[in-house]
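To fix ideas, we quote verbatim one protein's residues and fold tokens.
>
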Amino acid sequence: MERSEAREFWNQRYLEEPWPEEPSPWLVTLLDRLGDPGRVLDVAGGTGRNALFLAAHGWTPTIVDASDVGLGLARRRAEELGLPLTTLRRDLQREPLPEGPWDLALVFHYLDRDVLPTVSQVLRPGGRLVGAIATVRNLERHPRPPRPYLLDEGELPGLLPDVELLDYREGWFDDRHEARFFAERPSC
């Protein structure tokens, strides 16, 4: 997909398909390990399922995403639930991540090999990073995402050079083959 097509593609997908409202099971299992609630950046967070889960637990979330449709759905749901939420529409392939410092950053089902290594730079020292990204083995059961948006097996640690991996696993989870990670930016 050409970079200029990302917004239109995702707007159309959000209009055509129902999107889950439940947070990632991986994020739910890590809730007690995330530290005290603070500012969280949900990178390519779409309709906000993970950001809103954290908002319900005292976090102050910001979603950055290319799709104004996805962000609109997230804002509407936040309003219905009475939860705080900030949304920023940005094409991360052309525009930088919002400046931090962030206490926590989320990267779920989004792979841009130029953007991912920069996420740790907007975290505060000691800030955490959580995510899950499908690997190439996911194609064994599912036609999407296509190959350019899938990690090679074992690739993820090399894309996160500035954080310490606290928990990292690859495998079939919830019928997806993905790399799940929980990391921390060093304090010094």
Remarks:
- The domain at 3-184 is CATH 3.40.50.150 (Rossmann fold).
- The mean pLDDT is 93.
- The chain has five helices and seven strands.
- The longest strand covers residues 123-134.
